[in-house]
Amino acid sequence: MSDKIRQSEDRSQPITALLARLKEGNKEAEAKLIPLVYNELHRLARHYMRGERTGHTLQTSALVNEAYLRLIGEHGIDWKNRAHFFGVCAQIMRRILVDHARTRDAKKRGGTAQKISLENAFVYSDEQSWQVVALHEALNKLAEWDARQCRIVELRFFTGLDVEETAEVLAISPTTVKREFQHAKAWLYGELSRSLGKEDS
Amino acid sequence: MTPERWVQIKDIFASVVELPPEARRAGIAGLCQGDAELEVEVERLLSQHDDMGGFLEGSSPASSKSTDEIFSPGNVLAGRYRILEPLGSGGMGEVYAAEDQDLGEPVAIKVIRPQTPFGPGLLDRLRREVQLARRVTHPNVCRVFDLGHHQQANQEFIFLTMELIRGETLSNRLKREGRIAPTEALLIAEQLCQGLEAAHRASILHRDFKCSNVMLIGSGDQVRAVVTDFGIARLIRPPDESQSLTTTHGMVAGTPAYMSPEQLLGEDLTAASDIYSLGLVLYEMVTGSRPFRDESSWTETLKRLTNVPPAPVKVAPELNQRWNSTILRCLARDPAKRFSSVREVAESLKRRRGASPRLPLRFVVLAGACAVVLVVVAGFLLRDRIWTPKLPAQKHIAVLPFTFVGTDPANQAAAYELSESLTGNLSRLQASESSLWVVPWQEVRNQKPGDEAHASSSLGVNLLLTGELQKNAGTLRLLMELKDSKSLKPLRSGTVAIPGSQIATLEDKLFEQASSMLQLHVPPETLHNLPVGATTEPGAYEFYEQGRGYLLRSSPAALDDLDRAIALLQKAIDKDANFALAYANLASAYARKFRQTNDVQWLNKAKPMCQRALSLNENLAPAHVALGRIQEATGDREGAIREFEKALQLDPTDDATMTALSRAYDSAGRFLQAEALLKDAVRRSGISVNYAYLGKFYWDHADYAQAESAFHNAIELAPDNPLSYYSLGGVYLAEGKYKEAEDILTRGIVIRPTAGAYANLALARQYQGHYDEAAAMFQKAIELRPDDHRNWLNLAVAYHLAGNRPKAVAAFQNALQLTQKIAARSPKDSGILGWQARYYAELGEKAKAEQVLASALTLSHNEPELLFNSAVVYELARERDRALAALRSALLAGYSFSEVQNAPEFDQLRQDKRYSRINGN
């Protein structure tokens, strides 16, 4: 047990340093962080999604938090650092979920876009794999128009960052986050309703 | 669209979206300046915004604002319920006080929000939950009456009628007052426990227990607490609480703020999940806040997954230790480490400090536990001993292990197996023959073959069936005798002789013969020429029978028997590659080998055998049992449960499967099901052994009062079975009733001396300060069972307490040697290595101790016993920091605090200031 702790302490050094640089706006730091975080997240996701049982649920933010605690530990890191870590995770989480969902029966459509909801973060379950794929596709479209809105949705949806934290990661004001998120949601809702409607007919 | 256009739309949308409808229209007209296309785009976005409800959000401002009541006073719902007044908005929708005009009684009506997405499945589930909830009548549970439909203005409303409780929710009260003082909180907590317990007894889980589901009527010492919305709330969730669409599918449940870790991870829920939520409610009630509450709400939930909550006493320093420890135990992340029942929560809250049973040393108790574990042999209820010179009307029979005339051990094993299979076949007749009671094989197997004299009262039977297998010139002959168990006078006898080539039919022939001797009618369908999954290959059957005999006899102390069983079963398969039963038994043998060696190669061998057996016959109960064992070994508890359930369905008479299933339920935290299964066995067949199983279950759950009464029943029903006596003795010890323990153990020893009885008796003396006598009795236990290292440990401790260090050292050395022997055979058994390390430490061999401990800890790091042993090793090595850390882990893993309190190894450590911190004081 003690070995594990030591290990994560050692590994956390570069990550903490990278996060600090990321906070200062260094984009290279993000590129270096992604492989480190990806491995951990992917391993955790596999761990939670393996097994024969169907109907797995996965609280995405729980996963990210666990990765965070494993890689960095719970001490001496302020919430801003954590927000940046989560910021790195958002895209990875999206990729992992979409990859996973696509291996499931993601074609099965049912219900309406209203059903895509979250309490602070998306709870993934195999039954909703189609939603992940649908949202992913809609987000790709949104990114063409408004990359920042896409990023806001990613941060809020895939890792459960709140408005303040999202603002910190993107270095914008919380008011802007709220306003942009509201617009993004309305737009995505229309997009998803139309794509789901098409599937139904 | 151009990027400029996108920004334009976005800006207009942002500036009008929060406005009321008229102002919006005016705003759009002004901002779009006649650009009709722009207006259309903005309007479309706005209407999407208004439609989207909780899309991508936890809460939807639009829907939670609609507080207008649907019904007004005077409205009559479904032609029966007249609305009196609105009571407010509950978790699922509007709540009204109403009058049931048919019965003239007041009721509460919960109207489910019309916008709740209702699938057909959901309504069915709701109906089922209402049916279940209706079964609970308890003053601390809000009664649910009915589910109704009401049609109004082309809209269908679904509503629930329930007991009208005029009070205030606990969450409101906390909002007003912050927290509730411990005296009143205790009254509330007790009532909550009683309410939850009543529901759990009816196999209903709440699944969404939280402060807003608790109604309080009155306050102070008159307070009454009522739990509402059992099992129902989770199905109907208002949009502002639906944390995911899984709720609308009915999959995920609960309010995240109160959800247990397993609930968050989407695992199966048990009573332990309600206990977790109860812990959070208690926490909030006495401290005014939930753990991690100061963080954002998702962090709060997540932290519960990964962190240990801060002790309540840190938030509310006036709380005493029992609140503190009770709440923390409810909040253990691992369900198995929480209380096993709500009642235990209440008892733990009420228990006064110091009044808790003081169990001395852990290992000492373990030996007691071990003695009880070994036990449970018993017999039958002699309801009416109608005795005639011929056959009794009530046939209470035990088939004693058959003997083999000759020295070939393989044939002895075969004889053993034949008596087992005959027992199984006869017990199948119990369903149609109410006069017949057959002692399960598991109980008989511990009888010595020659010891017929004791069988009558120790097994509680009036008939014995004995048999002798002979083999000469290729013919098998089995002589059977049916005897009066008291006089041992033969009442009937019979012989079955078959040529060796027809050995596969021997079981059936025996069955026919035995049932005719017993004057039992055998329904033709019960008789099958071949047991299911059997073979027609004569040689194969012989090997099988011998192999199975060895398998039945094998025990941890007799590993060679297991190896012989494996070799013989393999031979049976070599002879007949389609011999399903042989595959199933071989799989069981491999699984057992794995349990004894922890070497995964045996598990890998077991799996294909099991698959083969099932592919040959998927309804072969032993194959499902074997698969269950394999899954158990790989940690798949739910899988194991499924297999055992299947096996029990296929063969409901098999006692071994029943106990395996109850243990599997137990270790999966499904305590209520485990208990129900054992209680059901008692109900179906009130024989001594079933009471003993139940007693053992309660013992494991430290429910000593219930264990005591169960073992009492076991003794009454089979008064000469010594094992029930020392089980009961162990229970008395745990209860601190030393005199009673001594009495009952002495009685047991008079019937037959056993190591367990002496060990427990020694403990009773030791607890009362008679160390020399205790040592002498441990010696007797060791004489009877010299290969159990814990007996030596107990002896060492007794000598230590008596001040005889040299003898204590000698005893520790013996204990060490025994663990070395076991470890040589099972090098991956972390538990044994932990003991070994501890013995080294006790003997002052610090380096060896640390080395062995290190290898134990690489194998496992969360077994409470191992952690406790490692704490002893560290403390004896004067590594206080590590000892404290290990002790803390042991406590977190569920090790009993009172046992830590009493360990002499920690006499000094307990003086350490940091010690008070590790138990959250």
Written description of the protein model:
The complex is a heterodimer of chains A (201) and B (921). Chain A is globular and about 45 Å long. Chain A has helices spanning 2-23, 27-49, 60-72, 79-103, 129-145, 147-158, 163-170, 174-200; strands at 57-59, 123-125. In chain A, helix 4 (79-103) packs across helix 6 (147-158). Helix content of chain A is 73%, strand content 3%. Chain A has 201 residues and is mainly α. The model of chain A is unreliable at 1-11, 51-55, 110-115 and 117-121 (pLDDT under 50). Chain B has a 6-stranded antiparallel beta sheet, with helices on one face. In chain B, strands 10, 11, 12, 13, 14 and 15 form a 6-stranded mixed beta sheet that branches. In chain B, strands 7-8-9 form a 3-stranded antiparallel beta sheet. In chain B, 55% of the residues lie in helices and 10% in strands. The relative contact order of chain B is 0.05. By secondary structure, chain B is an alpha+beta fold. At the A-B interface, strand 1, helix 3, helix 6 and helix 8 of A face helix 1, helix 3 and helix 10 of B.
